[in-house]
Design a protein that fits this description.
By secondary structure, this protein is of the alpha/beta class. Helix content is 53%, strand content 7%. It has helices spanning 7-30, 36-58, 66-69, 79-87, 111-114, 125-136, 153-162, 178-181, 195-209, 212-218, 221-234, 255-272, 289-295, 297-309, 317-322, 337-352, 359-366; strands spanning 103-109, 141-145, 171-175, 275-279, 312-314. A five-stranded parallel beta sheet has the order 2-1-3-4-5, with helices on both faces. The termini are far apart.
């Protein structure tokens, strides 16, 4: 059917056939020992490919599945970084025409850092910390909120590398563990994989997507048709419940993987001249620090990495445990405005009273 196209596409098809025939004839004339049937079969194959592609492109786009016209990416969409690139930080944006370069602080974590479901960014701990620091030393500090709902430690370190570092932060506050301990949903959507394992797969797939060969192949509608219908056939076969989470499904990140990612952030700090500041992400009805560390291996990992690296660790658990009977949360994990104020006050004290010989204290002293 592809050889009997009308009008413009038929002309192109015939022109291609004529040119390939001419090239074939010239080649045979100069190479008498070449096996002609093999070349003929190759040329016919190329002609079928070219004609099929021309035929598909001659059809109205509405007649083809959307995934044929525009081939979906191999890897899941990087929705967290896309959100940051589209909307920027929540609330305060980086100063561009500053009289003097402020000490730039970026808070990173999940929804409890972003401030879900607080309606105003002014109620979040990052904005309240910015206000407290400005009251003490106007124009010296700038606090930005890079929290993204659903983020775990892998997404934090990924966004730190891909988005936040371009703003040259001096201090990066890390506030997470809760999402990493969850069993579902997974950020990348790969059942049976931790976020760290899935990120390795995603990085590999994005490497393939960026290659010239894949970009050339995926530009063909013929590839889109093949991919669309192969995947359609694959969905007809049972998956043995691989995508159905169970109560015994793996956590997004086990404590060992979580600790490795914390160490990765410390190394990024050394390489890019920022000081990591770790918080204990607090929960409603928080127990005292000693009991929380004994019961929670993620919090214990935070303390171990801070102790071994010299990164600053700010105890946000104790002030919440002391007010355990107060209404400081909107649910199990999301602080209300008062809860965010307590976090801001605690970070403020940790910054202004940073020990002189510590990593944080040395940076603040060097910045005057």
């Amino acid at each position: 059917t592809c050889f009997f196209l009308g009008g413009y596409f038929q002309l192109l098809s015939l022109l291609f056939l004529s040119l390939t025939g001419l090239v074939f004839g010239l080649f045979i004339a100069t190479e008498p020992n070449v096996r002609a049937p093999g070349l003929v079969s190759l040329l016919i194959f190329l002609q079928v490919i070219a004609s099929s592609e021309l035929y598909l492109r001659s059809l109205p786009q509405g007649d083809l599945p959307r995934t044929v016209v525009s081939v979906p990416p191999l890897a899941p969409i990087d929705r967290g970084n896309m959100m940051l690139q589209k909307n920027g930080f929540r609330g305060l944006q980086p100063c561009i025409d500053c009289a003097s370069k402020p000490i730039r602080i970026v808070a990173m974590g999940g929804s409890s850092t972003y401030g879900v479901p607080l309606p105003s960014p002014a109620q979040t701990f990052s904005h309240q910390l910015h206000r407290l620091l400005h009251q003490k030393q106007p124009e010296r500090y700038e606090v930005l909120n890079a929290g993204v709902a659903g983020y775990g430690i892998v997404q934090v370190s990924d966004s730190l590398e891909k988005y936040v570092l371009q703003f040259m932060p001096d201090i990066v506050i890390i506030n997470c563990w809760f999402n990493d301990s969850a069993r579902t949903p997974r950020w990348y959507g790969y059942a049976g994989m931790s976020d760290r394992e899935a990120e390795s797969r995603v990085r590999f797939l994005r490497f393939i997507e960026s290659s010239f060969l894949y970009r050339s192949i995926s530009a063909f509608h013929l590839y889109g048709v093949f991919r669309h219908y192969v995947l359609h056939v694959a969905t007809m076969f049972p998956q043995n419940g691989a995508n159905k989470p169970t109560r015994h499904d793996r956590q997004r990140m086990n404590p060992k993987e979580f600790k490795i990612e914390l160490e990765r952030i410390v190394e990024l700090g050394r390489e890019n001249n920022f000081v990591p500041v770790f918080l204990y992400e607090v929960t409603n009805r928080q127990n005292e620090l000693v009991h929380s560390l004994a019961a929670n291996p993620y919090l214990k990992a935070v303390r171990e990495v801070a102790d071994s690296s010299g990164a600053t660790l700010i105890d946000t658990i104790t002030p919440f445990a002391e007010r355990r009977s107060d209404w400081l949360f909107l649910d199990f994990i999301h602080p209300n405005r008062i809860g965010h104020q307590i976090i801001a006050d605690t970070i403020f004290q940790g910054i202004v009273h940073a020990p002189e010989g510590s990593w944080l204290g040395s940076m603040l002293r060097n910045r005057g």
